[in-house]
């Protein structure tokens, strides 16, 4: 009798790659700006895509099949059919949640989803916003933490601010440095904290880095812990990190872009023990929750902060 596969996906053929990715693998890591991932030398460019079929005309046959059960890659968690159906609906209705007038139902849905996520964090209240990516959520959080430390920065700008230093682990996502660069904090003012052999931030090393910044006359303002690091999936010890933040009056942001969805698991939610003590959290339902890409939330414990510090000014036409 033929063996019955335990997982029906085991008996499925591997997804077909588009013709122009076959036989021409990307450069092997480490990639550098000099060795970027390139299409093959015989790739004729987008003008060749319409040649063979109606789907080709739409560019479909030149896409990697991400809905296939055996498609694995960073960022994608798989294809959820409810999510796909919901995306057809949202594309058809083309809503924008900037006013109740154009999107009454979607504004209420957004609010309900954010509140449910806040409940999972263990906060009594809070506010949130969906953003174009975990990187952007992290940048918003750095901005809020800075406002928290320098309340008049919105009006007076960087010229009035001291040298601010933020802390995160060696295993953090690259968006931390990007946020520091974009916001004028400077990448040299991101202090990286050593991790243990499983990739988790070592709290004692964090304490040392905070002391180092103080001795240098800089102003520590923010710690970013990671729940689910990009490469090894490590969860930083949030409770111990929160103690240090409390002692030094530092904003605690948790980048749970990857691992936040473990909060929905009775078995694994302990990995995020202490997340209720964070000031802000980035969480991407498009990762482990299988929402369609992109679905990223920034959640903030102080329910007034987003409106006060990150909004533009009131305007009469909205
Ligand atoms: C830990 C972590 N933070 C942030 C991000 C950035 O998320 P996005 O790709 O949605 O910008 C990622 C993406 O892989 C991540 O793994």
Automatic annotation (TrEMBL):
Cofactor needs: pyridoxal 5'-phosphate
Gene3D superfamilies in UniProt: 3.90.1150.170, Type I PLP-dependent aspartate aminotransferase-like (Major domain)
Bias type Polar residues, positions: 41-55
Pro residues: compositionally biased ranges: 27-39
Keywords on record: Decarboxylase, Lyase, Pyridoxal phosphate
Any Pfam family hit: Pyridoxal_deC
Residue ranges, annotated region (Disordered): 1-63
One CC-aspect GO term: cytoplasm
Species whose genome carries this gene: Pelobates cultripes (Western spadefoot toad)
Sequence similarity: Belongs to the group II decarboxylase family.
Subunit structure: Homodimer.
InterPro entries associated with the record: PyrdxlP-dep_de-COase, PyrdxlP-dep_Trfase, PyrdxlP-dep_Trfase_major, Pyridoxal-P_BS
Modification N6-(pyridoxal phosphate)lysine, positions: 287
Protein name: Acidic amino acid decarboxylase GADL1
A Gene Ontology molecular function term of the record: carboxy-lyase activity
Gene Ontology biological process terms, A to Z: carboxylic acid metabolic process
Signal peptide interval: none
């Amino acid at each position: 009798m033929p063996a019955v596969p335990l997982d029906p996906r085991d008996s499925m053929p591997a997804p077909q790659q588009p013709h122009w990715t076959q036989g021409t693998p990307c450069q092997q890591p480490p990639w550098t700006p000099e060795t970027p991932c390139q299409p093959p030398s015989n790739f004729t460019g987008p003008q060749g895509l319409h040649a063979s079929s109606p789907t080709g005309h739409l560019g479909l046959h030149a896409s990697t099949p991400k809905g296939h059960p055996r498609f694995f890659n960073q960022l994608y968690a798989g294809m959820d059919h409810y999510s796909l159906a919901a995306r057809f609906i949202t594309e058809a209705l083309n809503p924008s949640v900037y006013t109740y007038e154009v999107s009454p139902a979607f504004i209420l849905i957004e609010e309900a989803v954010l509140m449910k996520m806040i409940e999972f964090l263990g906060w009594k209240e809070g506010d949130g916003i969906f953003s174009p990516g975990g990187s952007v959520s992290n940048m918003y959080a750095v901005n809020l933490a800075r406002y928290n430390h320098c309340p008049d920065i919105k009006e007076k700008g960087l010229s009035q601010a001291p040298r601010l230093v933020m802390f995160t682990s060696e295993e953090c996502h690259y968006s931390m440095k990007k946020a520091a660069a974009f916001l004028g904090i400077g990448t040299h003012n991101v202090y990286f904290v050593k991790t243990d052999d499983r990739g988790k931030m070592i709290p004692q090393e964090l304490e040392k880095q905070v002391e180092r910044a103080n001795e240098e006359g800089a102003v520590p303002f923010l710690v970013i812990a990671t729940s689910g690091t990009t490469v090894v999936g490590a969860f930083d010890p949030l409770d111990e990190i929160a103690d240090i933040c409390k002692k030094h009056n530092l904003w605690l942001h948790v980048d749970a872009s990857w691992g936040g969805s473990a909060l929905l698991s009775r078995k694994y939610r302990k990995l995020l023990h202490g997340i209720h003590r964070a000031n802000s959290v980035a969480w991407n339902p498009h990762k482990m929750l299988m929402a369609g890409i992109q679905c990223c939330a920034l959640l903030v414990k102080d329910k007034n902060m987003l409106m006060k510090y990150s909004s533009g000014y009131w305007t009469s036409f909205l």
